[in-house]
Amino acid sequence: MKALLKLLPVFGSLTIAVYAQCPDYTTYSQSPQGSLSTGPLALPYMRPAPACRTFNSTAVEDVIANMTARLKDPDIARLFENTFPNTLDTTVRYYNSTENLAFIITGDITAQWLRDTANQFAHYHTLLSVDKDLAALVKAVINNEARYVSQYPYCGAFQPPPESGLSPTVNDWALGVTVNPPVDNQTVFECKYELDSLCGFIKLSRSYYKATGDDSIMNDNWYAAIDQIFRVIDEQSQASFDEDFDWISYYNWTGGNGALSPAVNNAGNGEPKGYTGLVGTHHRPSDDLSTFAFLTPANAMLSVELSYLAEILDEVGQAENISSLARQWSSTISGAIWDTTIVNNIFAYETNGLGSRYVMDDANLPSLLSLPYLGFLNKTHPAYVATRKVLLSRYNPYYAAGKNFSGIGGPHVDAWNPWPMSQVSAIFGTDDDAEITNALYLIANNTNGLGLIHESQSIYNATDYTRPWFAWANSYFAEMLLDLAQRKPYLIFKENVSYTPGQ
Ligand SMILES: *[C@@H]1O[C@H](CO)[C@@H](O)[C@H](O)[C@H]1NC(C)=O
Ligand SMILES: *[C@@H]1O[C@H](CO)[C@@H](O)[C@H](O)[C@H]1NC(C)=O
Ligand SMILES: *[C@@H]1O[C@H](CO)[C@@H](O)[C@H](O)[C@H]1NC(C)=O
Ligand SMILES: *[C@@H]1O[C@H](CO)[C@@H](O)[C@H](O)[C@H]1NC(C)=O
Ligand SMILES: *[C@@H]1O[C@H](CO)[C@@H](O)[C@H](O)[C@H]1NC(C)=O
Ligand SMILES: *[C@@H]1O[C@H](CO)[C@@H](O)[C@H](O)[C@H]1NC(C)=O
Ligand SMILES: *[C@@H]1O[C@H](CO)[C@@H](O)[C@H](O)[C@H]1NC(C)=O
Ligand SMILES: *[C@@H]1O[C@H](CO)[C@@H](O)[C@H](O)[C@H]1NC(C)=O
Ligand SMILES: *[C@@H]1O[C@H](CO)[C@@H](O)[C@H](O)[C@H]1NC(C)=O
Ligand SMILES: *[C@@H]1O[C@H](CO)[C@@H](O)[C@H](O)[C@H]1NC(C)=O
Ligand SMILES: *[C@@H]1O[C@H](CO)[C@@H](O)[C@H](O)[C@H]1NC(C)=O
């Protein structure tokens, strides 16, 4: 209730009464709501009432109708119906098309993460060419993010734009943290430096441009953000020590006495690194601290996204200096991944450029398991096949299997609570029908009867899960079903005929 009331300045007085009636979705998503699906799982309809939805799209409704008519299992159809629209139904906290600004929350946390938004909209890309209003919303998201990135390229999670009139959310985990360069907490929710956040911004931008052909997103604000991204790439690819063993530090972050966030080694700099051509990060996509700075999957994503960036800039015939720099970095990074992260065909999750490596995978993405999804390599590549086998076994310290659930977790929750998202990545990474079906039902069987995708799930206990309202996980699951609709229609549809939204 409290959260939705904050919407009022945007929608004006007419809808005050309506939004005031809307339940808080964090609470709403924790118990079964509408009618049950007719399959054995009997999953409830969990979309908010139409009047409470935060954005309407007829194209999205059309895809839901098409998919649910084709899916053979009513439980999977119900999951699609709940998850596909979840971003639009619940997370558009502020949108003004005149201002070209939108503020998108993650779900139960009222802040905009660059990573989450890129993923929260990834399954709508094919619709941007058919739904102009949806495209305008995405454009407004990109514009808001260009502002954030140009100002604070080292940060990943942000507060509402001042135009929204929404008040910033206090983040207890950011209190007592010393971060350099320093940030303003009216704009920044949390300034953890996570390389893939910047990749998310590029991914959203290039996907929008590719779908719409609209180059008006590339305004001064956007170019300023892109320049800052190259500044970070340059700074974070450097070795920690100079010739005199002075630490070259461009960014540092550490919790102090009494802070909820941990103190970080080496005055907030983390472990030292050498130069390899890879770009360092400070935190992982889970928002946990990195062990070693060179996160292989984030670099893989960066290499892919920089190559798209070069492509779109060349298409619009602008900024040749940036496109050639992007192409150069893309190839340096991918060369360094192949040269420095693989031993015996197995990719390391992290390396330090000085000979140390950590073979593991974390639960969300970019992860090693998601390398094919990220577009870095083919799922049939021998190095991926060999690595995937390790990741889904005891040799990955964060893989766990119990009588209820299995998959990859991480230090963010713990090893015994893998994330359903890791099973989605596993599906994107194989063509094996039996493995796909098994992973799909591991996820479907483990929503605690709520019909939404959660952050983590206990391997032993069906009712023990985290984050009832996590839009990214819902979007990623729906995106996977749309991928199967093209790749493996006979596995999920009544008829063996593929389906592509918007066609
Ligand atoms: C959108 O922003 C414009 C410009 O600031 C303002 O005039 C208009 O009232 C806003 N629209 C809504 C619905 O708040
Ligand atoms: C979505 O449509 C419903 C009517 O079906 C309406 O009540 C609601 O205000 C709309 N939401 C937005 C954000 O426009
Ligand atoms: C900003 O930081 C100050 C000082 O730590 C704190 O009192 C305030 O609550 C913070 N505001 C937000 C929105 O985080
Ligand atoms: C932290 O980073 C800033 C640059 O943002 C740098 O000036 C400062 O020396 C660094 N501090 C340490 C202890 O490394
Ligand atoms: C590209 O060139 C423009 C115009 O000279 C300049 O403003 C911008 O900073 C350059 N960008 C990069 C990444 O070199
Ligand atoms: C991956 O490689 C297989 C052959 O092993 C090929 O059929 C397929 O088209 C490739 N996929 C992609 C996305 O390149
Ligand atoms: C999912 O649950 C059904 C029972 O409803 C069971 O038959 C099936 O084996 C389960 N699948 C997985 C992968 O756990
Ligand atoms: C899952 O866990 C619950 C306990 O929470 C147990 O009753 C149930 O039998 C388990 N399901 C499976 C498929 O093992
Ligand atoms: C399963 O998890 C729920 C929710 O965390 C908890 O209340 C319950 O005690 C757990 N059951 C067992 C058998 O551990
Ligand atoms: C599904 O259709 C494709 C051609 O569209 C065909 O190659 C494939 O064998 C069919 N699969 C099944 C299981 O019927
Ligand atoms: C849904 O199916 C209808 C009828 O087959 C078709 O006209 C429409 O284009 C489809 N919509 C989408 C988004 O695929």
What secondary-structure arrangement, pairings included, does this model have?
Blueprint: H1 2-5, H2 8-11, H3 16-20, H4 25-28, H5 58-70, H6 74-83, H7 86-90, E1 92-96, E2 101-104, E3 112-113, H8 114-120, H9 132-151, E4 157-158, E5 177-180, E6 188-190, H10 195-212, H11 220-237, E7 252-255, H12 265-268, E8 294-295, H13 296-316, H14 320-340, E9 342-343, E10 346-347, E11 350-351, E12 357-358, H15 371-374, H16 382-391, E13 399-401, E14 406-408, H17 420-428, H18 433-444, E15 456-457, E16 465-466, H19 471-487, H20 489-492
Antiparallel strand pairs: 1-2, 3-4, 4-6, 5-7, 8-11, 9-10, 11-12, 13-14, 15-16
Helix pairs in contact: 5-6, 6-19, 8-10, 8-19, 9-10, 9-11, 10-13, 13-14, 17-18, 17-19
One 2-acetamido-2-deoxy-beta-D-glucopyranose (NAG) is lined by residues 227, 230, 319, 321-322, 325.
Q: Can you give a write-up of this model?
A:
- With about 500 residues, the protein is mainly alpha-helical.
- It contains 20 helices and 16 strands.
- The longest helix is centred in the middle third of the chain and has 21 residues.
- Strand 15 and strand 16 form a beta hairpin.
- The strands form seven sheets. A three-stranded antiparallel β-sheet has the order 3-4-6. A three-stranded antiparallel β-sheet has the order 8-11-12. The protein has a two-stranded antiparallel sheet with strand order 1-2.
- The N terminus is likely disordered.
- The protein has one domain: Glycosyltransferase (Alpha/alpha barrel).
- One 2-acetamido-2-deoxy-beta-D-glucopyranose binds next to loops.
